Amino acid sequence: MNNIAIILIGCLVFVIGLILSIVSTVISLWFRALVSSAHVSILSIIGMRIRKVQPRLIVDSKINLTKAGLKAISISELETHYLAGGNLREVVRACIAADKANIKLTWQQATAIDLAGRDLFDAVKTSVLPKVIDCPKGGEKYISAVAKNGIELLVRARVTVRTNIMQLVGGATEETIIARVGEGIVNAIGSADSHYDVLQNPHSVSETVVQKGLDRQTAFEILSIDIADITVGKNVGAVLQSEQALADMKVAQAKAEGKKSMAIALEQENKAKLIEAEARIPDAIAAAFEKGQLGIMDYQKIKNIMADTDMRMALASEEN
């Protein structure tokens, strides 16, 4: 009986201690909010624990917003964003930073941007302090463009951008900006009559690209595009002409080979006809003898002529 009583007393002490700990925490958070003019009720803090929301995070966020002058954001809105899986601490920091920088950013916009997976605080920071993007970015070192005179120019540019908060959700990212700027540089250089024009006035290229409005439907606003480096590449026009000449030569060679093959075939055909004709000579001579049109002396003369011809052909082949 004594053991049971001891166990019951121990459980009672544990429960009382737990209750006192919870009450102490609740009162502590309530008092912090009270002295900070955040006005968070004790029942709200207890309800947070029941809903498995971190009361300390919610209360601290409410206090920070209140101190920053953003009193309109309610406890319910803070809890809703936390339960939705958002990064509440970063959203609060971003809203305070935006308010101090006079950037229009509502709580609904901030939470939507955060839940979309964007780094909201970095976006607000970029709105205040523009950042520079290298173009091209990654493994490529230069943008290759060819002027009208066929000379290749290798270009590197630096794009200064500022975050467009209003288009951060659904707006295109840095990769789109880099691609559009690269395309604009290629078009601008391709429109130049000579590469000397670009080398003498590279600013004209950046001006042309900026005027195209490449930041439409993106999460950024392009402030400037600066040509950081221009290098003269290969003579693409000369290379293309050389390759065209080589291709034309191969076509001509192919045509010549075709004509040669036809000539050889014609020669072989003529030789075949000659052999066929020579094969008919004995028959013709025999027929001439029968008809009395050819005598023995005539035949002998023909044989001498043929022998003389064979000898001359043999001598000619030896000399060659």
Indicate the topology:
Elements: H1 2-35, H2 42-50, H3 55-67, H4 75-83, H5 88-100, H6 107-115, H7 120-128, E1 131-135, E2 143-146, E3 151-163, H8 174-190, H9 195-200, H10 202-210, E4 220-235, H11 236-291, H12 296-319
Antiparallel strand pairs: 1-3, 2-3, 3-4
Describe the protein:
The chain has 320 residues and is an alpha+beta fold. The chain is built from twelve helices and four strands, in the order αααααααβββαααβαα. Strands 1, 2, 3 and 4 form a four-stranded antiparallel beta sheet that branches. Strand 2 and strand 3 form a beta hairpin. Helix 5 runs parallel beside helix 7 and helix 8 crosses helix 10. The N and C termini lie far apart (136 Å).
Characteristic terms for this protein:
single chain, 320 residues, alpha+beta, 4-stranded antiparallel β-sheet, 4 strands, elongated
Please report the total strand number as a whole number. Answer: 4
Radius of gyration: 48 Å
Catalogue the unreliable spans. Answer: none
Q: Would you tell me the overall average pLDDT?
A: 82
**Helicity level, as a percent range?**
55-70%
Q: What percent strand?
A: 5-15%
Q: Characterize the biggest β-sheet.
A: 4 strands, antiparallel
Cα shape: elongated
Quick structural gist:
By secondary structure, this protein is an alpha+beta fold. 65% of the residues lie in helices and 12% in strands.
